[in-house]
Predict the structure.
Amino acid sequence: MNSSMITELKEAHHQFFKAYKKQPISVRIDHLKKLKKVINEKEQDIFDALDRDLKKPAFESFTSELLMVLKEIDAFVKNLKEWAAPKRVSGSLLNFPSQDFLITEPYGTVLMISPWNYPFQLAMIPLVGAIGAGNTVVLKPSESAPHTSKVLIDILSAVFPKEWVTVVEGDAKVAQALLKEKWDYIFYTGSTQVGKIIAKAAAEHLTPVTLELGGKSPSVVDGTTPIQKTARRIVWGKFLNCGQTCIAPDYVLVQSQFKDALIQALVEEIEKAFGTNVQDSKDYGRIIHEKHFKKLEADLKNQKVVYGGKTDINELFFEPTIVDQPVMDSPLIQDEIFGPILPILSYETLDDIDEVLTQLKNPLAFYVFSRNKKFINTLIQNYSFGGAVVNDALVHFTNPKLPFGGIGNSGLGAYHGKYSFDLMSHSKPVVKRSFWFDLPQRYAPYPKSLSLFKTILKRI
Ligand code: NAD
C-alpha cells in the first residue's frame, strides 16, 4: 500500500466516522454481536491459523485467545449503553446553580498496530474497545503471523464495512507509512524499542497513544508456599506459547535456601506437562521465526544450563530451559527473554531483592509466591509494575474488570472492558447553567474588600 492509498484510506475512514457518529449505540452493539457470531463460526479457521503461525495447541488457542475475545465482546454488549450514557456529577457551589455532566465521544479514526505472539486476541480485544467506543479502526497486524492476519481479514470484512474496519497487512515499512497520517488515536502493542518510534510518530501530530509494551516480569519465591504447586504455576505461565507471552515470568528470584528444591520441582513440572521428550509434545509451541530463535540461542551463550537447552532450528523447537544464577550484566538478565528460558536468581535479604528489582524496574507483571502477608505487601507497595498476581502467574489478564497495561518501559495506558471504553473515548465535561441566580460580585468593578469573599469562597 503506497502513501497515496494510505491517505485515501484515512480519508474514507474519516468520512465514514463523520456520518456514523450520529448512529445510535445499538448499531455498535449489533455489530459486536455479529462479530461474536462470525468468530464462533470461524473457530476452526482461527485454531488452524494459530497452529500454522505458532504451533499453538487448540486448547491454548481457545483459552488464551478466542475465549478472551468472546468475553470482551460479552462485556461490551452487556454494558455499553450504561458506559456510554452521559454521567451526572455534582456541581461546584462556585457555579451554583448548575447541572454538571460527563459526556463521552469517540476519538474518530484509530490506528492499531499489533504483535505476533497472541496475534488474534491482541488485535481483537483492543479492536472491540475501539469499536465499542464508536471509532473506526485501521488494523496493522504483525507480518510474523500471516495466517492469523488472513483470518482477521476474513472475520472483520464479514462484519464491518471497509471504511469502518480495515486490516492492512505489511511489515514495519507499512506501519511507518501508516504512522505518517494524522490519526485520532493510536493503539500499539509490541516491543519497548518500537514503542518509542510509535510515540515519536504520534507526537508529530499530537495524537493520543496507548503503548502496550514488554519488560522483565519477576517471580519472587520466598519458600513459604507449597513448592510443587508454586513450580507448576510458574511452569504454566512461563512455557505457555513457548515463553512468548508479554506477561510470562521472565525470571525467578528465590530465597537461596529453597533454590535447589525449586529447580527440582520446576523440572518435574516441565516433564509432567510436556514429557521427557518435549519436541514430541502436542502441547508445546514453537518459536515464531529464525531471527527470534537465534536471539534466544545467543542468550544462552556462557550460561549455566541446568535443564533443557536442546534446540532444533528446522522445527523452530526450543526446549524449556532453566539457567542457574546468570550474571546480572548478561543479555539474559538485561533484556526481555520472550522465550522458554527461565533464569533462576537467588536472594538472602530484602536488600538483595531490592538490588535486582531496582535494576530491572517497571515490569509489565509482578508475581510473588508467598504466605507471608508482610513480605507480599512490602513488595507490592515498594515496587512499580503494570499488574501483579500473588501466588499465580498471568491470571490478572483474564479479568476484564481489571485494567491491563504497563508503566514506564512496559507501557502507557491500560485497557480491557470499561477501561478500553474509557481509553478510546474522549470524556467531555459539560456544565449547564441557568440565569435565575448570579453573584454580582464576580463581575468588575470588584468589591473593595477581598477579605469577606476570601473567607466565604474558601469555605464553599
Ligand atoms: P514488534 O515491536 O517487533 O512488532 C509489533 C508490531 O510493530 C508489528 O505489527 C510490526 O510490524 C510493527 N513494527 C515493527 N517495527 C516497527 C517500526 N520500526 N515502526 C513501526 N512499526 C513497527 O513486537 P513483536 O516482536 O511483534 O512483539 C514482541 C514484543 O511485544 C515483546 O517485547 C512483548 O513483551 C511485547 N508485547 C507486549 C504486550 C502487552 O500487552 N503489553 C503483548 C504482547 C507483546
The first strand starts at residue 87 and ends at 89. The mean pLDDT is 96. The two ends are 59 Å apart (CA to CA).
